[in-house]
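Handout, section B. The chain below has 653 residues.
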Amino acid sequence: MSDVVLQLKSTFASWDLEGTGTIKQKHLETLLTELAHLEAEDVNMLVQNAHGIANGVVDYRKFLEWVLQLDTTSQRSLSLPKAVAAAGGINAWNEKHSCIVQLSRMLDSMCRARTVEGALEEVQAVMLLGHFIWAYAYMRRLYNNNVDLYYAVLQAKPSLLMPVVYTPTVGEACQKFGKMPLYRRGCYLSITDKGRFKDVLQEYAEAELFKREDGRYFCECIVFSDAGRILGLGDLGAWGMAIPIGKLDLYTVCAGVNPHRTIPVIVDAGCYGTEGNTGRLVIRDHELYTGLKQNRVTHKSAAGTTVNSAYYGEDSLIREFMDAAIDIFGKKCLLQFEDFNSNDAFPLLAEYRDKCLTYNDDIQGTAGVAVAGLLGAIRLRNPSETSLLRLLREEVFLFHGAGSANIGVMRLLRDEAGVPGSSIFVTNSRGLVWVTADGKSGNFRNDEQKEFAQVGEPAFDTKDLVALTKHVKATCLVGAVGVAPGCFTKQLMEAVVANTDKRPIVFALSNPKTQAEITAEDAYTWSSGKVIFGSGTWFAPVELAGRQYQPGQVNNVYIFPGMSYAAICCDAQTIPELFFMRAAEAVANSLTEDDIKADRVVPHVDNIQHVSLEVATAVVLAAQELGLAGRTLGTKREEVRDALAKMRWIPNL
């Protein structure tokens, strides 16, 4: 906020600090606009964060004291991507590349709206072209122009625009992030600045955040990623910033987290070349790549997996980042892991989950929404059933893919939902995961896979999914392979249907759509509408035999906004697995009659704010029950829900 602060101080520096009295907030807003010449979005942000303002009334002296203590010296360089800093900053970077200059001019011409209605007209006109990457670029420009308008537009049409700002478009946005104009939002922690991470975060806070009355900066949550495994797309390095930005957008749109108190972070530990991403795209060596143009440094862990060397040991990057964030923003600041490679994700979560307020959405959030979807599927079979967990425990599960997503789901099913381990089977690239009786050998790749390995080497080729499904008599298939689109075949659908006299459950969780294990149309058509289908990305409704099926998008968005909002609002100390189980049940219990009629395993996305509030309520109650809430929001569900509803941030338009 350096430029805004300079304008403020130059306007108010000569004012009488000894003055007293009050003025109305609307009069202050007029002064800020006409005397300080601030844009409307800057005025909105200032009045939301300034000291001395309450109930539409401004305490003159408190406000002036706050203005005059604001820092004006901060200019970002450490917290920028390295190539951008070397170019002289964000404006210099954008102006250096003629293609970005031209795109900026085009986006300026496209993004002229000042009202929700006007912005919706503009973005929907862009969307008529049928390719959402331009709509994504439009929305980023809208955010840069007016933060409050941006969120008001998203909240007005969540089902229309969430697919634009997050999945499925966000994967392509990461692949092309550096080819679009760069904006201020986002902090980059480079491995070359190891030892100075506190300085990096401090610089970002001074430039982009406001201070609380106790002197700390307002930061309630940070989503951080090293972009080592973006969706099913692989290593996208510094261009992966679209993921933490998108994640935090949904924090706000769905749950009501204050966007001015969040930081999206990329930990830049290097980036692999074309071999490191599934599309074999030139990312790191592209002339518009913003981050470090060097490989990651890795080693073999004790478990035999390839991990990032910089993330481990007493002087690890992750430890330095965590310590710096807590030191600057306090222990109540939520630190959410996002899109780390599985080999790093599990050990890092294990190391830090009890030391600070943190969770890994790829592991735990995916687990929560997958279990929510499974419970929702059980409810579609039995709409009047009140004991969904009991029926869930009767299923036989085959998980295709043994990465962080499926491992997390299996753990939640076994440890919190009470599903017997004998009913859970999982594959990796070598087939069904197995281990010898003495535990010394098998085809598992890490300890997490070994945890769910079947004892004894199978006597048949378990890479054959059809044969494996028939052998274990699976009634639920969950795919999260990420690199095997279309691997759920017609023969597989026929096999799972034959395994049960009930409707089997088939989830294709891989993102983006191009990586899905099966499409909605194929799942319904090949099974004659017998399977209950859910997917990680959005699929259009399917018409079959006179019925319309509207597949539910089993996406983490139903879990993580409410989870994070709850943790922030009740000052949670840690986030245990029980929170995710309670969140899953809250999602399943939010299904409406229309959802059941449409065959959706999760609620319609237009109800996402209601669902997020239900999730947050369930999580706060669990935190209070376990003694993990630093702040009690009520003793009854209704009291907690009402308190959370009142705490939600809303756009100031």
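Note. The chain has a mean pLDDT of 91. Compare this with the example in section A.
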